[in-house]
Structure formats: structure tokens, C-alpha cells
Amino acid sequence: MLKNKSFVKRTRKGNIVRTVKEHYLRDDISCGHISCTHTTCQEQPQKGPLSSTPRNSTQWGPHYLVLDTNAFVNQIDILERPIINDVIVLSTVLDELRGLSMPVYNRVRAVIRDQERRWFVFSNEHHRETFIDRLPEESPNDRNDRAIRVAVKWLTGHYHQAGIVPVMVSNDEDNLRKAKADQIAACRMDECLKVYSEHPDLLDMMGSVNLGGAESDGWSAYPEYLTPVQIQAGLKASILLQGTLQIAPYNYLEGSIFTKFPDGKERRVLVVGRKDMNRAIQGDKVVVQILPKSQWRKAPSAALVDEDEDAVPDVLKSTDSSAAPVVPDTQKKDQGHAQKRARVEEPATTSATAAEFVNPADIGDDIAEDGEPTGCVVGIVRRNWRSYCAFLDPNFSPKSSRASSGPSTVSVLAMDRRIPKIKIRTRQLNILAGQRFVVAIDSWPKESRYPHGHFVRALGDAGDKATETEVLLLEHDVPFQPFTKNVHADLPAEGGNWLFDADRDQVSCGKRCDLRHLDICSIDPPGCTDIDDALHAIELPNGNFQVGVHIADVTNFVKPNTAMDKEAAYRSTTVYLVDRRIDMLPELLGTNLCSLMSNVDRLSFSCIWELDPEANIISVKFHKSVIHSKASLTYEAAQTRIDDASMKDPITKGIRDLNMLAKKLRQRRMDAGALTLSSPEVRFRLENDSQDPVDVEMKALKETNALVEEFMLLANISVAGKIYEHFPDSAML
User: Fold this and answer.
1) Residues 322, 324, 326, 330: is their CA dihedral positive or negative?
2) Could you tell me the superkingdom of the organism this chain comes from (predicted)?
3) What's the pLDDT tens digit per position in 408-459?
4) Neighbouring C-alpha atoms within 13 Å toward the C-beta of 177
5) By the number of CB atoms within 10 A of the CB, which of 43, 578, 583, 723 ranks highest?
6) Residue 116, helix vs strand vs coil
7) How many helices (H) and strands (E) does the chain have?
8) Which DSSP state fits 96?
9) pLDDT tens digit string along 234-293?
């Protein structure tokens, strides 16, 4: 069935045009039920992922969940939990998500790809029985709500024979009322979560919960933001400025933006005080207006500032007014830490009329006497809210030891000191006291001193090594989750039993060189298992030297656009901590098949030079290769071979030749004005059993450290030259 859909859009020149697109409707779209008996679904080549025995409840019996768009946007943290399975995602909702929030859309898509979660996309917009046209005077949002109800009603009849009920989940009261009038099973998100009674923490994770209006301590509301039309007009007239807010690391009441002024020069604009920041936080893209010069700051403050301790404590709003958690010793440590920070008075904010605000066009370079331009936030272009590691505010913890299962509104402090307090509602006061946990910001009403958020998940006890390590990784956005099944599926089927094969690995056809006869060795720190480079040197009959750098051929195992390739690109690098390593690639590759260990055949890329005795390059060639390293040496072991005159084996002679040539290469670079970046490095000595650090010592740099560095540099320089020769417009050293 063919229908036409028309769209009205504005061109770049500002003209309004109507576009008509063909929209095909079908009657052979699967419902997603893995054992559906309907003829249309049985004829599908692939069965849907939805279980024939989904979660059972006393209210609906076996049921699937069908969520509206706002449920995904506001509750994605809950929906990502592994227990939320058998979910139907309507194409109407996916289309709305793509327009509303790409991060949430991508997170939903990631769950859909996980087959174990049993999430199914039902293409209701292309199904003959569920597609609907927009009615006259009907808003796009109302049309989409109606499309969701129509799809759920059709699915209700379709699943009736299987005894499964599709339940619509929405917090839109009007949508719920209409659904129930149509005899559709529907509920609010909190009602839906009560089905998962074994996971009471899910209710704490609900986003966009109303935590109350104005503060109880007489706090006056923040100024209203300008409208989008006013902001666009102000930016176009250069009356307003736009930039990313950067909060001072140890003064949450002081921030700044760097932005271009009308004269074309980039300057800093200070934003000082809670009211002038106007609900903006670290990383938000904001619009500011320049305050009168009488309010400009001479320089950023040097004070160490934390959340004000003079504020009246937040009232704990609990169903049991006498309820309070026990404050353990670990929380007292946080309390003492907070009390060590300076108490300062928040900078006063003076209101200014429109006539008093400074026009950025009037600001020149002669502003030193007036101080730095200082502004106030009048609008938010883009929020930079993320998940934050946090702990209960120790200054506002109740003292009674009695507990309650009812919800309480509390303040939490983010580990990132640039973030203001966050108000959340929780039923887990006793559990969260003395713990680190993750929270997310949902909203910041102008009547509230602090943003409102929700609990995401607990991390563990404060002070625990594993907990604090996870906090460190989360706050620095280091991906550390285990590799997925899709990534592991891209590994060689032989696993650790993989062996070099001359035909498969293209040695027989000449596309890869066999260098296994060379006396190659690697030089790395003690305990190194991911050996990614190796070297060799041979004196030639003409007095010159053949020198080779061999890099592990990872591309032989990581093919473009595979799940492993995308995961490696996302992780970008291997991260080293004191007691562990966060791998960029699965361990099978990083520490085995792509590690140039001694006495095994390994695939590599090789850069091989002919150098004269003064380390001048006579020739260079590059090719894929297979090598067989003869020794895996530490820097110290390699240095011992250089210093011990009695050692005369080929590996030792090669290292001495490499060292001699490296010294000449380094001297030549220094003479040419090379920049040397070096700082003292430390090594942590770990206890054998617990792997706890017991001592710190300085790393001693030896000649062999410089040897390896010098030839890695030479390889990069030579490769860059080769790339520039063939791709001059897209090569950079």
C-alpha cells in the first residue's frame, strides 16, 4: 500500500518548500514474538527476539513493555539495567528519540543490538494496521501519542492468543487516560517498576521526579532565561556572547568563557557567583551578557571554595519524619575533608538595567583599569550534564539511628568539585551513608538553589581500593567494562592455539616477508606482556648497518568496521593504573597474538634501513613481515649486555650497534634544535598477595631507554616521509 507524506521545510536561502515523499505500508511485518502462531509472523525468515514466557505480574500476567518517548528520555538509566527485558520499541518512538536526543537514541540502539535483552523494534509507522495520518488541528506530539496507543491496541489483539499483554508505560496523564478509555493496559513508570519488587533501588533511579519548589531558607529564584528568539537576535547583534563555561577547579562559584568579541579578538569573560551563573554548570554552552564595569572583577579569586557551609541544611522530606541513617566512620572522613575547605561569602550580585549592560563592541584592549569583562548567563545553548560519582553531603546528614523505607530528599556532593550539590530522592539513606554512588541530573528549576537528579547505582564503600579506582575511571571517562560477546566473536577461532600459516598469512604469495632468520629482540620495562615493538641490527659487508624496527601487525586481526575495531576506536588506548591495565583490545590479542614475544612466530610491520656508520639513512623499505624474536629483554638486561664485554652473541652485538647508532641519531636531533620533554617517572612496588602498593621509587633511565625511543622516532619520521610522498595533502608528522 502506497501513501504520500508531505513535509514543509525551509531552505538555506529561507524559502519555504513542500516536499512529498512516498510512504509504503505493509502487512507482512513481524510482531517480534519468537513463537507467534499468526500466519504473517510464521512466514518471516527470522523470528523476533521477544520471549514466549516474559515476566509475570499479578496485575497483567505475562507481559511486554511498550514505552513512550519520554520514558526513554527520562528513565534510560533504569532501562539499561539487565533485568528490563522483553521491550517493544515502536518506530514512532525511535524517530522521536533521534530528533530529541542522539545520546539516548544511541544508548537505546545499543540495548536493541544485545540479543540477550530481547528488545524488539516494531515498525508501526510502516504497518498497514498501525499507521495513522495526522488529524486536522492535531499537534505532532498528540499524533505520535495516538500512534503509540493504536500500535499497542493492535498488538493487544495480536498477542491475545498467546496470552501475553503489551503494557504501555507513560507518565503523561492525558495519554494514560485515553489509553485506559481504549481498554489498553497502561501504567506510570513507578507502577511498572513495582513489578520488579526484588530490585527496590529502581524507584530511586527514576528521573524527573518532582523534589519540591522553592527553598525553605528564603532563597530567591534564579533569573529567567531569555527566549530563543531574544538570544538569536542578541548574538546576531553582537550584544550577547556565546561560549563554553569552564568552572575553576577549586572554586565552584567562579567560572569563565573564552569567546570572540566583535573586534575579532578572543577574550575571557568571568562569570562569578551563583546567581550570575544562573544554573549553568561545568561544560555547558552558555550565552552571557556583559555586566556594568562597576561589577567587573580585577582577577580570578585565589580562594579555595567548596559548597557554602553557612547555608541552612536541606530538610529531609521523609514519610517518617523521625527516620535517619546511621553515619559510619567512612562518611565522617568525607565530613572532615569537607570541613577543611575554606568558608567564604558568596560574591554579591547587583542587578543591572538593560541600559547599564556593556556592549561587547565597546570593549577594547584598554580594559586593565576596569578589570576583566564579567558577565551573567542569560541562556543555555547546550547542556553538558552527565553521570557523576558522588557521596551524601556529610554536613546535612541526619543524626538519628532509626531507619525508614520511605523516600527522603537529600543533597549529594559530586566528586568533581566544579559541580554544585545535587538533590535526589532516595529510600536508601542507611545504605548510601559512607558509600560512593553515581547520580544523574534531571532538571534545574529556577526556584531551586540546586539541580534535581536521581540515583543511578551504588559503587561501594568510600575508601575501598576497588571503589575508589572505579570512581577514578568513571570520572575520567575511561571505558573499563568487559568486552562484549560481539567483540569476542571477532577473535580468531583458534584462540590461544593460533599458529602462523605461510599460505593463509600471505608469505607464500610474496605479500609478507619472512624475517624469522634475523636476530630480533625486544626491550621493554619489567613485567611487560604487551610487547608491541622489536628491533634488530646487522653489520653489512660494506661497513654499513641493516637496522629494523618491527611493530605488531594488529590489523591482521582487527578488520575495519567490525565490533572489535569500533570498540578499540572508542577506547583509543590502553590505560595503566598502579595495579592493573585497562586494555584497548581483548587480552588474547594484546598480550598474546599481537605481542612480539620471544620464541614464537608473530606477524608484524617492518621498517628496515641501511644506515652508514654515522647513522645517515642510505635507504629504507617497508613491508608486512613475520618475525621470530630471539629474546624478550628488560631495559636493565639489555644494558647489562652492552656493559658486559664478555658477551659476544649476535643479539648482544646487535644491541651494541643499535646503541652506538642511537647516540649519533640523538646528538644530531639535539644539534638541530629538537625539543626534549622529560619528567621524573615513578614506579610502584606492589605486595605480591594483595597487589597493594607498598613503596614508590624513581625509575632509573638507562641508555637502552633512549635506544628504543630513538629508533621509534626514526621509524615515525621515515613512515611520515613515505606517506607524504604519496599523500602530500593529507600527511602530517
Assistant:
1) negative
2) Eukaryota
3) 889 999 999 999 999 998 888 888 888 999 999 999 999 999 999 999 999 9
4) 3
5) 583
6) helix
7) 19, 29
8) H
9) 999 999 999 999 999 878 889 999 999 988 889 999 999 989 999 999 999 999 999 998
